[in-house]
């Protein structure tokens, strides 16, 4: 497949901005060890502890432990129980769960619950509550396994999961325990991506990832208590923006705004967080990205040998197992919380063993050859005193394992002989060593390029692999262009012209597409007094392109998270072109920063294709041979030329509201009827 199909379905990404979001996410979720902050000292510590509390309540509800939930709520969020609707639902579920246990003692406890808690709460919960109370009494008569009974829905365990989702939504808003920006942003981007692909009738090239990551089900929405406060009429612009951003009905958007007391952005956060993520998959993607970008160590701190004990005495297997879940005595002051274990979560394991990241024609044995040839590159990076390796954090992983899982794992380890364990550790260490070699070379290239050391990067790469730039001539052009501009900046025009004559000119002759950026580059000679600030040069964008290309040469595929971000940011752009408006929420989630790619000194076609052209036969994971996002007759450029007449925002909103249409469809209809909303509505209902 050619690279053009890839570039049509991907957009440039500010990887430095993504690094910041990912690091903030990893710190907020306590996934990495960080000397500067911890869950008990960082500004987000209360949010982290509250998120743990909410997770514990969700799990307790899903297990039917209603009394434990009520105990936690009374201790940490008593005002939530002032909502009689929630209290009634909890008591009704408690009644069902007591009957579900089936013993005589539990049946008597259910009757007691009925008299002392459920009946009183049914009187003032909501108008239908007393009818529901009388209906649930039928559970005394009909067995839980009777699928034809009138209370089959009351017996359904799905009710537990619905209640858990509802309570999660309520507590998240009540405690302001929102997920980190990155996890909200990726939910939102994938949701838009799915909607765009469905609407445009195209297949997504990242379906396998998005289906695993963003689950179909959503938590139930938290709804406002009627009559507690008067809500002024909401701006229709806000209602429609919220409804279409998170796929709500108009009434759903109104209810969400009521619950947030008119705060559009809080309502948006409430709705985005209702989308369910598979955090195991998310953590794997983040860990893979962090290793690739040099944020965390490239070793495998959570591999099978980590935490494995060499057993000298059988008595070690009888030691008390650490708790890894939050007890019902959960404390927000840090006195009682999740206890870290010697073994990190298996979710945090390295995504690929040494061999699996290699392409079909390479294996781990090449890493030693490359490391020997790349010694100058590594030495330069070390001599420059970057200290990047020392800045990397250790990945801790999310501690979601149960005590039973830990015990089973340890028993397996104990059953192995000491010789077997030592042998397994040695083989894993060897594999990690080889892999770390290749990662260090790749990261050395990235770090030197990010500091603008273009000449040193070219020399180092040529020393390591003389054929690299023959297949990646645009990357060479970009590096030599930076070298040229730096020399001009220093006033060394003779050396700058030598670089232009020796490299930039021949490369532009080879590829006519480079002639325009070459001319723009030479203009720097006409402004001798103008200095190019380091931050104005495209160091970071180029360093990432080089990292991807050199990584592939070493057999390291780029992280799947990079593929997701390229593709979803592209569809985000295309979606709002179709909607002919700006995304009101992209600033809140820092999506606008992810799109800020400095291309002032780099031609657009180069900055967009630099990641793809490094391997013309590969799509960078943003498109496949049977999955493409083409620009066809429905392209935003063609649509926008037909809707100039529909410039009245009031008319657009009126058609959207009355006909429950997306913004783009409303604009299309208005364009057909000269922007007259009344005519559009009459024609539709005629």
TrEMBL record:
InterPro entries referenced in this protein's UniProt entry, alphabetically: CTLH/CRA, CTLH_C, Ubq-SigPath_Reg
Residue ranges constituting the CTLH domain according to the UniProt record: 50-106, 438-495
Region Disordered, annotated ranges: 309-365, 380-404, 608-641
Composition bias type Polar residues, residue spans: 316-334, 608-628
Record PANTHER family: RAN BINDING PROTEIN 9-RELATED
Protein name, entry field: CTLH LisH motif-containing protein
Organism of derivation: Artemisia annua
């Amino acid at each position: 497949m050619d690279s053009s199909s890839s570039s049509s379905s991907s957009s440039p990404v500010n990887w430095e901005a993504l690094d910041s979001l990912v690091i903030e996410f990893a710190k907020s979720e306590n996934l990495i060890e960080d000397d500067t902050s911890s869950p008990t000292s960082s500004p987000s510590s209360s949010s982290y502890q509250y998120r743990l509390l909410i997770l514990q309540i969700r799990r307790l509800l899903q297990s039917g432990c209603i009394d434990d939930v009520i105990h936690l709520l009374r201790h940490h969020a008593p005002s939530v129980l002032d909502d009689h609707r929630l209290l009634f639902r909890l008591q009704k579920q408690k009644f069902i769960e007591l009957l579900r246990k089936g013993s005589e003692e539990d049946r008597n406890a259910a009757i007691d619950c009925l008299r002392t808690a459920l009946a009183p709460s049914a009187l003032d919960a909501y108008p239908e509550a007393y009818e529901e109370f009388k209906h649930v009494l039928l559970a005394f008569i009909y067995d839980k396994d009777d699928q034809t009974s009138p209370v089959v829905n009351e017996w359904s365990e799905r009710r537990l999961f619905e209640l858990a989702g509802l309570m999660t939504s309520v507590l998240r808003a009540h405690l302001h325990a929102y997920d980190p920006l990155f996890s909200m942003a990726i939910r939102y981007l994938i949701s838009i991506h799915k909607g765009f692909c469905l609407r445009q009738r195209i297949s997504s090239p990242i379906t396998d990832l998005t289906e695993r990551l963003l689950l179909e089900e959503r938590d139930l929405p938290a709804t406002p208590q009627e009559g507690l406060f008067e809500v002024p009429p909401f701006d229709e612009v806000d209602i429609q923006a919220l409804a279409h951003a998170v796929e709500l009905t108009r009434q759903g958007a109104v209810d969400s705004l009521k619950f947030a007391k008119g705060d559009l952005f809080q309502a948006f956060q409430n709705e985005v967080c209702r989308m369910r993520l598979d955090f195991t998959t998310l953590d794997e993607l983040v860990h893979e990205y962090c290793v690739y970008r040099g944020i965390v160590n490239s070793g495998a701190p959570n591999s099978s040998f980590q935490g494995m004990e060499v057993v000298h005495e059988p008595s070690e297997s009888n030691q008390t197992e650490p708790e890894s879940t939050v007890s019902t005595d959960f404390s927000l002051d840090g006195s009682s919380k999740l206890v870290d274990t010697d073994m990190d979560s298996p979710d945090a394991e390295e995504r690929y063993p040494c061999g699996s990241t290699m392409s079909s024609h390479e294996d781990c044995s090449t890493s030693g050859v490359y490391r020997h040839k790349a010694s100058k590159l590594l030495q330069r990076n070390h001599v420059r005193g970057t200290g990047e390796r020392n800045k990397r954090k250790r990945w801790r992983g999310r501690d979601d394992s149960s005590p039973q899982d830990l015990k089973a794992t340890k028993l397996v380890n104990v059953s192995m002989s000491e010789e077997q364990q030592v042998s397994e550790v040695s083989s894993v260490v060897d594999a990690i060593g080889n892999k770390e070699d290749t990662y260090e070379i790749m990261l050395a290239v990235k770090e030197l390029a990010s500091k603008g050391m273009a000449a040193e990067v070219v020399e180092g790469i040529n020393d390591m692999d003389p054929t690299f730039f023959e297949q990646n001539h645009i990357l060479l052009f970009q590096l030599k262009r930076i070298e040229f501009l730096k020399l001009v900046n220093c006033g060394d025009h003779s050396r700058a012209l030598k670089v232009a004559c020796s490299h930039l000119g021949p490369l532009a002759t080879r590829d006519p597409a480079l002639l325009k950026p070459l001319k723009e580059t030479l203009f720097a000679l006409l402004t001798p007094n103008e200095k190019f600030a380091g931050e104005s040069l495209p160091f970071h964008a180029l360093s990432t392109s080089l990292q991807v290309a050199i990584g592939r040469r070493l057999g390291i595929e780029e992280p799947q998270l990079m593929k997701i971000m390229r593709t979803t940011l592209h569809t985000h752009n295309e979606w709002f072109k179709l909607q002919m408006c700006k995304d009101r929420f992209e600033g809140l989630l820092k999506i606008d920063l992810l799109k800020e790619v400095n291309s002032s000194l780099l031609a657009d076609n180069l900055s967009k294709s630099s990641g793809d052209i490094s391997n013309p036969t590969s799509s960078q994971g943003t498109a496949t041979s049977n999955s493409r996002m083409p620009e066809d007759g429905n392209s935003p450029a063609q649509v926008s030329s037909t809707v100039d007449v529909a410039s009245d925002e009031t008319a657009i909103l009126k058609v959207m509201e009355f006909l429950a249409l997306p913004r783009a469809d409303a604009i299309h209809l208005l364009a057909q009827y000269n922007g007259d909303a009344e005519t559009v509505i009459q024609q539709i209902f005629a």
